[in-house]
């Protein structure tokens, strides 16, 4: 029973939706596997998210624990492995709404930072959930700047123990997931002191709750940090340590060790730590950012062909809101961005795989580029997609604002991605530092990593486009992006040098350039995104209409970027005002072209109704019926409010005589 | 016990904080009145918002009803009048967190649309809360386009009644506040039919709940629409009508009437309806938009001088985050915007007062300008301030994401202002229609309203600025804004004409220009904002340092706008690339200047800690202590989760033997 306004949109697709889905998944086998897993999970009532929008933080937490425990059994039954390709699908199928995600980080950190002996002791217990782990790094007063952590671990040679303490309130661990109510153990990062000397931050396994009755261990104060903008299912916690003693063997010692007499030894490379951050940032782009944007686009675009409002022409019936240019201009660039960043995510994964195989051969050359790109892309993609989800929400008007649309929770959750795993501004400045370094090297004729070789090229004078159709040429717009990135990097490098030559100290000069450095880093990442999208489209087979529609999306993404950041392209006259009018014309011309395929383009993301969990976005488009049905389930309709008896009745009781 | 990092910021203010507060309030008497009222309300435990962040939708609703009922008593006791200047202060003091706001709209609509007889009957009952009213306009399938409403009211001459019906699901009333659980009566907007002929949308008073036991009246289906992104305290409702009969005298008939025989008469001006919308839009700018932004700035700026992170210089202690250029560039333009839009809000109020006094003299000439300006400003100010609050939230990192910071609820509430009282894109297109009309008139030598006389002026060729200091001249930047608004309006008018001359039909041509029309409307409102801010600053007395700091804020607001929309200014070469570098330099130079006074500038907003309700933003800056204290009050820490017994214990029970 599909709404006819939505059904008609599916009859005119210019490409094969199924083929596009398979391409997005990375092959027929992947699509089959994903669908089979989604079916297994969605068919299991334990994983239902039906009442999610009505639940309290306590109820959400309990459901998340139930799901996590059940999932472990289910994985065993189904033969799904923890580190196989399955987890990605599981995570998508449960929409991340399970407990013990930090337990996974606990295990990961022991695997990477622990010795073989430590791994042998802790990993089997953790795998069987015979303990529940967490990862206690961030403190109330300290986030991104790890060296600033204040928790202390003092080695006591007499007892062969570390004594852990929270010296003041700002040193309290704050935010770790799974720690507020679940965890029995955690990895605590603390400043190591031996014989009064500080050796910097090290990781220690600390038991925080009794395995017998789950009560807090002696010297431990821990609890939940309370309500957040989302993540009601997660028990983000706080932890204070008061003379908590752990045995010497609880310091994770794959890379450094404390001998019984207090001798400190360090071995191996620290660079591997960067690799862990890199892999986390790359995988969150797909799982926590691009998929939520795809969902938001699906909801907003389906709703926009069901919703009718006002008239385009007098005398006609009310128009589908997606037929208004302004609505197209809100939503279609976000749809193009979802495809663009899907490609970027693949690109980063390939780059990582390549880098990782080199590292296994003890070649660390790719690490700086990998770190710089993953930092910058984490920042721009989370930022772009967060804004994009918000645009989708607003574009659905009042109904988008209802939790039942699914959009508010997508927004409040994706917003967190701008903050966690490295604050975005700090990450962009790391990318900028890499770019400035490479720029200097390139100018000095030294070799630079592949993604920045353009910094060695000569600047182009002017954009050669002569009419609006020229701006549909990937060469034309990719070069414009390249030129702009280059200009911003070189002009900021020049400002930095000027300041230092005029006597400003290095650190002050850097701080005075940071606003522009951030712009330069963004421009570089935007350029690489456009370049990679065009290259991906070129490689597509022209069959089944997919290359053609993807080319349109790529053009739209690129021209939308120029249209919205016009100043950066006009600044030195590379693009003239007259050419910018051509960009605008080509950009606006693309909107009605892509609008025709908008519904098939979101159908290809292949989200089930259960996964969208949206009254506005389901496949059948029965928007109003579903809003009404779902609203009736709200607890506000299941209880006569005590407010009537207490407050309203006394007011209203003698009105009748006066009416 | 003020945090020393925050205390030191207050010792170096370049101006009198108290004098600035008084100026913001509009005079010493106003400040005194506001403070006395805040004290009376905050001293009353009924109005406490202490546990708000932990409450369910049901609890929030009950608290809001309790507060509303109590407020009525309190107003009577204190001698505060419903329509006096007091309500603004009350609304600010309770942060809008009370029930029966739509009851006020119910009363307003009867006062404006009802006859004297209707007013005499209903208003006294409503004033005493002997009935609770609501305002049922929006339908599930129909919002901004009122003519599309589907609810019907058929006049039955035999019984002298109107028969009201909801003919299909999309016609159900949806969203009205106070209707889901509280209201006994509502004003229903329905298509009036007499003898089979439709006379358009009219308002009818309909009883929906029993005055004896609050049960739904016969033929009424009503309830709560469920959870939203905010407004948990409000019982937004749905309403279906099935052959509900109301007597003839229940149609509000100040402007039109149905005679007993079905004869329909209309009298008076319809334009008064525009005036109601205008006054609502103008008052929401101050109450729902500018004040929340001022709160967000207060929280984020105070936190940013308490929070320390990383080092600006090696060897020094960690730096206050507000000392980083990037943090200044995030927050200080939002602070400047709060002051700018405070001035715009005053300007609109004065314009409205002038227009209203003209209308009372039966002169309706100002109405189109008033309508166009209030629409456009409602749109750009809600949009700008919503983004600004989000920037404040993100700038506080992880702690900003905690509900306890107060920022998430400010954001999720202000976001709604982009949607209600007219969807922003539609409002901007109404402004654009007015601008295009005035532009054509000006070109034809006809007179135009005062705010758009610049459309008749000759275009200036180039910006005359020769160095970065020139861009601190209000004439220079105001002219740049004027030029840009003019260019966008004239080029869009030209495109519109070209399309029509090439044979595109008027409505299609309009739709094809709407993206650019929205840009033009925004540019106009931005120009008026800058112009009004500069004029306000010029009029300030130079005493007490206030004019000087306000001049800095005005410069920052103006230059930030040019810096962020560089393309619009560079497009035709009015500002050159070299001049844009001067703008950037002056803009960045202003940041450390205003940073020095940032804390005094937010102190001047004079919010109490209770009103901010923020662990990050209170006057004493004891951020970490307060986060910890408040977190402990969370229900997640007051209950042992059933999840332990049910799910965790069975897993953990035999771990001990293995450790």
Automatic annotation (TrEMBL), chains A, B:
Catalytic center residues: 421
UniProt binding sites for FAD: 138, 177
GO molecular function, one term: FAD binding
Domain (Acyl-CoA oxidase C-terminal) ranges: 474-652
Major localization class: other
Cofactor field: FAD
Limits of the Acyl-coenzyme A oxidase N-terminal domain: 16-132
GO cellular component: peroxisome
Signal peptide: none
Pfam families xref list: ACOX (PF01756), ACOX_C_alpha1 (PF22924), Acyl-CoA_ox_N (PF14749)
Localisation per UniProt entry: Peroxisome
GO BP terms: fatty acid beta-oxidation using acyl-CoA oxidase; lipid homeostasis; very long-chain fatty acid metabolic process
Keywords: FAD, Fatty acid metabolism, Flavoprotein, Lipid metabolism, Oxidoreductase, Peroxisome, Phosphoprotein
Domain Acyl-CoA oxidase C-alpha1: 274-436
Stated family: Belongs to the acyl-CoA oxidase family.
Protein name per the record: ACOX2 oxidase
Gene: Acox2
């Amino acid at each position: 029973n599909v709404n006819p306004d939505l059904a008609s949109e599916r009859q005119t697709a210019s490409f094969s939706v199924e083929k596009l889905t398979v391409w997005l998944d990375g092959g027929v086998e992947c699509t089959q596997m994903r669908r089979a897993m989604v079916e297994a999970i969605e068919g299991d009532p334990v994983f239902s998210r039906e009442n999610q929008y009505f639940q309290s933080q306590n109820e959400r937490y309990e459901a998340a624990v139930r799901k996590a425990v059940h999932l472990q059994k289910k994985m065993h039954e189904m033969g799904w492995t923890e580190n196989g390709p399955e987890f990605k699908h599981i995570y998508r199928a449960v929409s991340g709404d399970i407990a013990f995600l930090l337990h996974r980080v606990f295990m990961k950190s022991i695997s990477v930072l622990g010795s073989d002996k430590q791994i042998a002791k802790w990993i089997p217990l953790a795998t069987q959930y015979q303990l529940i782990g967490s990862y206690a790094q961030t403190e109330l007063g300290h986030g991104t700047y790890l060296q600033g952590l204040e928790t202390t671990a003092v080695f006591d040679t007499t007892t062969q123990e570390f004594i852990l303490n929270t010296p003041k309130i700002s040193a309290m661990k704050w935010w770790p997931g799974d720690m507020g109510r679940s965890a029995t153990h955690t990895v605590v990062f603390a400043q190591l002191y031996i014989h009064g000397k500080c050796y910097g931050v090290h990781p220690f396994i600390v038991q925080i709750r009794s395995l017998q009755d789950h009560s807090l261990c002696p010297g431990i104060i821990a609890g939940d940090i309370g309500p957040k903008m989302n993540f009601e299912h997660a028990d983000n916690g706080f932890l204070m340590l008061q003379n908590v003693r752990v045995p010497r063997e609880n310091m994770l010692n794959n890379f450094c060790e404390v001998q019984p007499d207090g001798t400190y030894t360090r071995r191996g490379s620290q660079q591997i730590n960067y690799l862990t951050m890199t892999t986390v940032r790359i995988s969150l782009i797909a799982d926590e950012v691009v998929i939520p944007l795809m969902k938001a686009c699906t909801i907003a675009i389906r709703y926009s062909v069901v919703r009718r409002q006002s008239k385009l022409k007098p005398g006609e019936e009310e128009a589908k809101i997606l037929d208004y240019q302004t609505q197209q201009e809100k939503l279609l660039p976000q749809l193009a961005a979802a495809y663009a960043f899907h490609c970027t995510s693949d690109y980063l994964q390939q780059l990582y795989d390549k880098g990782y195989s080199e590292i296994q051969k003890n070649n660390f050359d790719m690490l700086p580029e990998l770190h710089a790109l993953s930092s910058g892309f984490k920042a721009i993609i989370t930022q772009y997609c967060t804004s994009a989800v918000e645009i989708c929400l607003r574009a659905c008007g009042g109904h988008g604002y209802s939790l039942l649309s699914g959009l508010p929770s997508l927004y409040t959750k994706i917003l967190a991605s701008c903050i966690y795993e490295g604050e975005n501004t700090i990450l962009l400045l790391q990318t900028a530092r890499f770019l400035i370094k490479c720029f200097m090297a390139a100018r000095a004729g030294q070799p630079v990593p592949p993604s920045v070789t353009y910094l060695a090229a000569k600047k182009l004078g002017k954009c050669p486009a002569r009419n609006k159709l020229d701006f549909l040429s990937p060469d034309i717009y990719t070069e414009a992006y390249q030129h702009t990135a280059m200009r911003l990097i070189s002009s900021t490098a020049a400002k930095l040098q000027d300041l230092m030559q005029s006597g400003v100290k290095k650190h002050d000069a850097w701080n005075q350039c940071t606003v522009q450095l951030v712009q330069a880093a963004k421009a570089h990442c935007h350029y690489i995104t456009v370049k990679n999208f065009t290259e991906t489209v070129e490689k597509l087979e022209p069959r089944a209409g997919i290359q053609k529609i993807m080319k349109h999306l790529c053009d739209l993404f690129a021209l939308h970027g120029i249209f919205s950041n016009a100043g950066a392209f006009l600044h030195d006259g590379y693009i003239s005002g007259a050419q910018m009018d051509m960009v605008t014309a080509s950009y606006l011309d693309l909107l009605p072209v892509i609008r025709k395929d908008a519904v098939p383009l979101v159908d290809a993301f292949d989200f089930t109704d259960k996964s969208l969990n949206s009254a506005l976005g389901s496949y059948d488009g029965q928007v109003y019926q579903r809003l009404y049905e779902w609203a009736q389930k709200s607890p506000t309709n299941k209880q006569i409010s005590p407010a009537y008896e207490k407050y309203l009745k006394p007011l209203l009781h003698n009105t009748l005589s006066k009416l």
